[in-house]
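Can you make up a protein sequence with its backbone structure tokens?

===
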Amino acid sequence: MPAPIDPDARIATATEGHAGPVTLINSFVVPAGRDEAFVAMWTEASLYFRARPGFVSLRFHRAVSPDADYRFVNVATWATLADFQAAHGTDEFRRLVTLEGWDEVPSRPALYAVLVVAEAGTSAAGTSAAGTSAAGASAAGTAMAEPALR
């Protein structure tokens, strides 16, 4: 199981100059018996982020696999890297991630750019996040574009 990290290390980094939206994927190791307390802490932090400029969306996941190290995963989309960085550079962010209880919950934040978007029920020709068209679909009829790597 991953070791706890310092609260100052709860900020994902990215190469400067990235253009376009960024997706934060933050995985959490929550000790047994701490689910309710963790969800309350996460909820408070999420209210802060949802009110920040450039916040687009979030999804909060709980593992259904009983042996998952990371039982909770947050996936949040920001309009730009600068918006993400601004939200994580405030005194309020520092206050939230240093509240009692967060030191018990190691996390692994990382930023990503979307390469492929695939949705059920769309045509066989999909478009990647980079705008590249591609043909081809899975047996279920899901459109999926080839990634445009940069």
